[in-house]
Write a structure and sequence with these properties.
Helix content: 25-40%
Number of domains: 4
CATH topology of the largest domain: Rossmann fold
Radius of gyration: 24 Å
Structural class: alpha/beta
Number of strands: 29
Shape: globular
Strand content: 15-25%
Distance between the termini: 37 Å
Length: about 625
């Protein structure tokens, strides 16, 4: 069947009306003619609203065991601990009073060092409710690091007045190393010197809580979210109350079906990232929806928890990174009951964080049609921590992988020519004012008109029609020249290579700066390759990438890819499977799973040398007839 001719489940989306101005010199300005509507400027104003309007609606839930302790891997007979909007607001006021009485201040933020949990959510909302800034840090800084360099850097920069952790014993070593003397609140396994989270709930709110709430202004700092540190140590992005509430309104206007309780989410995306925290958690709050915390993750082991959660809760929108969709698709194919429940309320897929391979996109459309008789909107866009996060959205039905859509209401986009590409720059109410205690980085981030320089390149789907949307054209800083002087568009090339792998390739790093030809360090999709090689799940990656079947599959991909190349800038001549573990300490990978091309090239120079060593020999493969 030709899916392109099958109908869509139609949901309300924004009317697209993009105004375009072309200046002298080729600078292009874009903005939506749709006005940004009014919205509250205090982030917890909607919490107060929903606590009054829908007090008994579930706001947040998490799986608990029989004794009430949150599990990291739920079992079949799971139960959910939930809080309604009214219950959430009452607890937030108690914690807010505690924070006002503590050492937290606008100069000494609250630090949250924890995975997603109800308690994490309550702490963040309490700080926001009384205008105290907080910073959620990646747990990996403490739990997967050996030198704590990033944790030490962020703590030194923040100078926190208080640290919240889910488990005192788990974070003891890291906090002792980087934050001695800073008061700590722990939910589980508190140490002797720690505050116990449950005690905070007995604090009696005073009028000071409401007064602090009333004093919040649009420019009041809400959060300091740290970047992944792809070009050095992480920078602390300031998001104000006005930034985030403006973006919630921009997103809701783009997808109005979300309003008034239209969101039910089963979501694992970490709240220390803008996608999980500002976007998913925040949109749920803004629109009076329900968020069920998924303690699974898109790994062969973690996906089992996700599947069990999805058997119990049917989402209305399913947010994920591409890897998450890849992990869930095989289970949806073979489990009719799971697939039926999953699609029973679903209105939209939405991915971010990386490009979605076209074959994964096609699989999602096929599964939706197989189950419901209709395809679903697959949404995405362009966002970043500095954008709070969303700046462009794809709202076109029947689109394609790579489409990022059009600007959200209230945002101005400036496209500036850079090396033959168009760099996107943004100005609007959702754009961060800069970086925490880093005036030099702030000054460099904005141009002379106050537009934020993204470093992202965009191009029009149809140069004559801005309403047709835009596609991502790579990161300008990742692009390089071959020794011949030919520019290489790394982002686009990598996306094409991953798609050509049809499931074989999880990610890739493109090599070739200063060389005469392009190469690639290939990160295999482990589950796919183990099945291809006939190996057990516990087979190591070193054995896996030496499998004749896996090597033959990569050779076929290289050969076919070479036949489609149009010149040296699109021809991957040689490739090698990576058999090493990426390092978060060295900035090679984020805790969200995305890789850092620049860091890997710098740290793995020996692997680059393998690709360009003559004569070519295993484990390096070379495309035929090149």
């Amino acid at each position: 069947m030709n899916l392109k001719k099958t109908p869509f489940l139609k949901i309300p989306t924004i009317d697209i009306d993009i105004q375009q101005e072309v200046r002298d010199g080729g600078v292009i300005l874009l903005k939506s003619a749709v006005a940004l509507q009014n919205r509250p400027h205090r982030m917890t104003e909607r919490l107060v609203h929903w606590a009054e309007k829908t007090p008994d609606r579930v706001f947040i839930g998490q799986v608990v065991s029989i004794d009430g302790v949150t599990q990291s891997h739920p079992v079949n007979n799971q139960t959910w601990q939930t809080l309604t909007y009214a219950e959430t607001f009452e607890q937030v006021k108690c914690i807010a009073q505690f924070l006002l009485d503590s050492g937290v201040s606008p100069e000494k933020p609250l630090v949250i060092l924890s995975g997603n949990s109800i308690e994490h959510g309550l702490m963040s909302l309490a700080a926001l409710h009384v205008g105290l800034p907080y910073s959620p840090l990646a747990p990996a800084y403490a739990l997967r690091s050996t030198d704590y360099e990033k944790l030490r850097h962020t703590i030194d920069l923040l100078q926190p007045g208080l640290v919240f952790v889910q488990n005192g014993r788990e974070y003891e070593k890291a906090l002792h190393a980087v934050a001695p003397g800073v008061p700590v609140i722990a939910v589980n396994d508190p140490l002797d010197q720690h505050h116990v989270f449950s005690d905070l709930l007995t604090t009696k709110p005073t009028p000071a809580v409401d007064l602090a709430f009333q004093n919040i202004q649009p420019e009041t700092i809400a959060k300091i979210l740290f970047t992944s540190g792809s070009t050095g140590l992480p920078k602390g992005v300031i998001n104000t109350h006005g930034n985030i509430t403006a973006n919630w309104q921009q997103i809701t206007q783009s997808f109005p079906f979300m309003a008034d309780g239209g969101l039910t989410l089963v979501d694992w995306l970490p709240w220390n990232h803008t996608f999980g925290g500002n976007h998913n958690f925040g949109l749920t709050l803004f629109n009076g929806g329900s968020l069920y915390i998924d303690h699974g993750n898109p790994t062969p082991k973690g996906i089992e928890a996700t599947l069990q959660n999805l058997r119990g809760i049917a989402p209305t929108v399913y947010f994920n990174v591409p890897k998450g969709f890849e992990e869930i698709i095989p289970h949806l194919r073979k489990d009719d009951a799971l697939r039926g429940h999953f699609f029973s309320q679903l209105q939209m897929f939405f991915y971010a964080g990386a490009g979605l391979p076209q074959h994964v996109w096609d699989d999602l459309e096929e599964l939706a049609f197989q189950t419901t008789g209709k395809r679903l909107l697959i949404g995405t866009g362009l966002g970043m921590t500095e954008g709070s996060p969303s700046c462009l959205f794809n709202v076109h039905f029947g689109s394609f992988s790579g489409m990022i859509g059009v600007p959200v209401p209230g945002l101005e986009v400036k496209l500036v020519s850079d090396g033959g590409k168009l760099e996107a720059r943004f100005r609007g109410p959702n754009i961060s004012p800069g970086y925490w205690r880093n005036p030099e980085a702030t000054a460099k981030a904005f141009d002379e008109e106050g537009f934020y320089r993204t470093g992202d390149a965009l191009k029009f789907v149809d140069p004559d029609d801005p309403n047709a949307g835009m596609v991502f054209d790579g990161r300008i800083a990742e692009d390089f020249k071959l020794g011949t002087g030919t520019w290489v568009n790394v982002g686009v090339l990598k996306a094409r290579l991953i798609t050509a792998g049809k499931g074989l390739i999880q990610d890739a790093v493109i090599t070739g700066h200063g060389h005469s030809f392009l190469g690639a360090i290939i990160f295999p999709e482990l589950k796919y390759c183990k099945k291809l090689a006939g190996l057990d799940d516990d087979a190591g990656i070193q054995i896996l990438v030496q499998s004749p079947a896996v090597l033959e599959a990569l050779q076929t991909v290289l050969n076919d890819f070479a036949l489609q190349s149009t010149g040296s800038s699109t021809l991957i001549k040689r490739a090698v499977f990576a058999d090493f573990t990426l390092s978060i300490d060295k900035g090679e990978i984020t805790d969200k799973g995305s890789i850092n091309q620049r860091a890997i090239l710098a740290n793995r120079a020996d692997w680059v040398e393998k690709i360009y060593k003559e004569p070519v020999s295993l484990p390096v493969l070379e495309a035929a007839n090149t």
